[in-house]
Amino acid sequence: MQNEKLNTNSIDTSELSFNDFKLIVINDYKIAYESRQASVLGRREVLTGKAKFGIFGDGKEVPQIAMAKAFKKGDWRSGYYRDQTFAFAAGISTIKEFFAQLYANPTEGADPFSGGRQMNCHFATKSINEDGSWNDLTEIKNSSSDISPTGGQMARLVGLAYASKLFRENKELDYLKHFSVNGNEVAFGTIGNASTSEGVFFEAINAAGVLQIPMAISIWDDAYGISVPAKFQTTKEDISEVLKGFQRADDAAGYEIYKVKGWDYPALCEVYEKAINVCRDEHVPVLIHVTELTQPQGHSTSGSHERYKSKDRLTWEAEHDCILKMREWMLESAIVTEEEIAELEKAAKILVRNAQKEAWNEFLDSMKSEQKQVVDLISAMAQNQPELSKISAQLASTADAQRREIFVAARKAIRVSAKNLSPERDELLNWYKNQEELNYDRYNSKLHTNGNESPENIQITDAVYDESSKMVDGREVLNACFNENFSRDPRLVAFGEDLGNIGDVNQGFAGLQAKYGELRVTDTGIREMTIMGQGIGLAMRGLKPIAEIQYLDYLIFALNVLSDDLASLSYRTKGIQKAPVIVRTRGHRLEGIWHSGSPISMLLGSLRGLHLCVPRNMTQAAGMYNTLFRADEPAVVIECLNGYRLKEKLPNNVGDFTVPLGKAEVLEEGNDITVVSYGSSLRIVQEAAEELATFGISVEIVDPQTLLPFDINHVCATSLKKTNKLLVVDEDVPGGASAYILQQILEDQKGYFHLDGQPKTLSAKAHRPPFGSDGDYFSKPSVDDVVEMIYKMMHDANSAKYPAIF
Asked: What 3-state class would DSSP assign to 48?
């Protein structure tokens, strides 16, 4: 329905006749009014129980119409959950799709933004196909997938805009015709006034000002953040006043800052046209502070704004509703008569109501056949087991049954009939098993892109050495790897704190900025959240970013962006968007509370959707990078902080050999005990194994290499079949990553059945390591700890052969 509306985005209004102008204005009002009706009806659908929850864009319709006029093919949006009118006006969403998402309809095509996985007003456009191949993004009005954390979109916005700068200034990227037209694309961001209090907002504003990128941020200011008024949110109660120092001047780069009332349709159209032209042509970031907005239905369906707004405020909001003010202006300007506008509003209500009914009926129709099947199958079983008839009758009488009710009934009938085997029961069981695969696709699939360029599809090439292969510092292996790949692929860019000029604090990028230029190897400010966002946005636009966080401990500063946005991107869009960012960092053993962290369990718990690589040395890290550079899925690579100056043999094919992700490796074969460890701790285990050999104890050492995924070929369980004993050595806190590794080996790989004794873990202490070598020794697993732990396990199994040490 919305796609049939008049396309006004490319019309030059200066050359319009009055009748043409009138047509455009009326069409704009029609979209705004339809959007308001969708909000009103959407709230009603939640309050009547058809939908679970709703947040709507009421009160922001008119400025979003103005913003949509300046939004062109190739542009990108990174917004938040108030932008439905913009989505309707830009043709990104229809009203029917809006309601399908409100109902969480997982049927293919119903909710094209998230496959029923996100709540309403979370939009996304299709960047990639099922096989992971890219669409032509220059022919799409692009919307990056929304997230609910209200400032989280800001980090990604920086990267989306930064990509335009790289496409414009780096002519080596000109061949990427499907991603940019000379960097002319603007990245549009939206945020509520209250969320400008968040740190990620200020990080992003500062980053964009430094980078001078075509980023246009609109602040929808309705003077509240849920129930909290602006006086508790913002200094001076005015964010554009706060940001005046960012205004550019003749002698200093910065922003163009605009302020406009959200109910003034002509002024909004003028400001957006002017601001976006500056942003697009000059690559200057712009900020548009849209004030005096309202929120007629309150923050969400979970409460009423009458509880916290004064009568005077509510009266003011009723008088300054942007749609009402636009209506008044249209009548005063003789653009439309009262009769014409009343007829338009009547038609809009009917159109929205019909779209809602159609979306609801399609949602129910997608499940009615399942409901009938299960009722019939359980009824057939009830012929021999009468107590089942109650289950089938209850399901049959459930009006508007959703899939949950259907499967509750099916599973209960299967449980209740466990002792009454019959062909009818087999039929229900077969139906249920067949549905499991369908439901996996509906609700659980696409954690990863799983396309043709998945890491698992990258050809494995072994490292090659010969007599002339040199022994070099580990950092030199990395440096050679990065150099070879940057020469091979112009899409590769790297950025981070101290990465450019000095080549990173451990010299992995030494000399590469001088060789490849500042656009490709770049220093950043200290701003971890937007370093990650920079990577996400670039990757969504077809580039291959390496976003560096200097130390693993500092990844905590960016964990919200990585977890909320990057890790969930493929899943929450059901595979229509991807961002193959490589997050490079360094960690594990060194010295001190802030520079020797291994908070792996934190990453394991929050970054499902990323690959987590924990190479034991720089050669393995280089092989993993080579794999990831050729793949299209995001990853974190944690280099060993104490390994940069250790000597390693430089492979002849340092830029080409690949290490498979998820493939564990047996480093040393043994017969008595299996020890699983990773990263820097492996050297500790290997040294301990030498001493244990003097006691006649043979240790098999397994390096999983990656923790996400973990040992997909079950090397650990195979080892346990031989040794029957298991120790996990880990630098994380007690019960941290070691608990995850145990779960994978004992439960997933069924390693429990091969044990002849209690599996053990040897981890760091429950605090960060104190400073100095002694601090490391007394807080993280040492060679002595490993030797004595393994010896004790052997003593417990055979005390005669291995008498107690202590």
From this structure: coil
Maximal CA-CA distance, the chain: 103
Helix axes 61-69, 265-282, angle to 10 degrees: 40
**Residues forming a β-bridge with 612:** 636, 708
> Are 739 and 600 spatial neighbours (Cβ–Cβ below 8 Å)?
no
CA angle (528 as vertex; 559, 492 as ends), nearest 5: 100
- Model confidence over 44-53: pLDDT tens digits? 999 999 999 9
Name the β-bridge partners of 188. 77, 216
- Order of strands, edge to edge, in the sheet holding 544-548? 521-523, 492-496, 544-548, 582-587, 635-640, 611-613, 706-708
How far, in Å, CA of 728 to CA of 244, rounded?
55
Give me the mean pLDDT over the 748-767 stretch.
96
Residue 13: per-residue pLDDT: 56
Helical (H) or strand (E) element with 513: helix 512-516
CA distance 305 to 309: 6
pLDDT digits (tens, 9 = 90+) for 497-542: 999 999 999 999 999 999 999 999 999 999 999 999 999 999 999 9
Please return the burial class of 91, using the count of CB atoms within 10 Å of its CB with bins 0-12, 13-18 and 19+. middle
Q: CA-to-CA distance for 260 and 262, rounded, in angstroms?
A: 6
Range with the poorest average pLDDT among 20-24, 565-569, 649-653: 20-24
**Can you name the residues that pair with 252 across neighbouring β-strands?**
249
Residues forming a β-bridge with 582: 546, 635
Nearest to 636 by CA among 552, 565, 713, 568: 552
Q: How far is CA 576 from the centre of its chain?
A: 12
Residue 596 near residue 587 (C-beta atoms within 8 A): yes
pTM here?
0.95
Q: Is residue 5 very low, low, confident or very high in pLDDT (cuts 50, 70, 90)?
A: very low
User: Average of pLDDT values for 294-317?
Assistant: 91
**Contacts made by residues 447-451, CB under 8 angstroms, sequence distance 24+:** 447/570, 447/571, 447/608, 447/609, 448/570, 448/609, 448/633, 449/128, 449/132, 449/570, 449/575, 449/578, 449/632, 449/633, 450/132, 450/575, 451/128, 451/130, 451/131, 451/132, 451/133, 451/578, 451/632
pLDDT band at 1 (very low <50, low <70, confident <90, very high): very low
- Residue 5 has a CB neighbour count (10 Å cut-off) of 15
Active site residues: 595
What is the DSSP code string of 386-436? GGGHHHHHHHHT-TT--HHHHHHHHHHHHHHTTTS--HHHHHHHHHHHHHH
pLDDT tens sequence across 677-701: 999 999 999 999 999 999 999 999 9
pLDDT of residue 14: 59
For residue 709, cis peptide bond before it (omega within 30 degrees of 0)? yes
Examine the pLDDT at 3 and tell me if it is beyond 60: no
Residue 122 contacts residue 114 (beta carbons within 8 Å): yes
Query: Alpha helices, DSSP H only, in 80-152?
Result: 84-89, 95-102
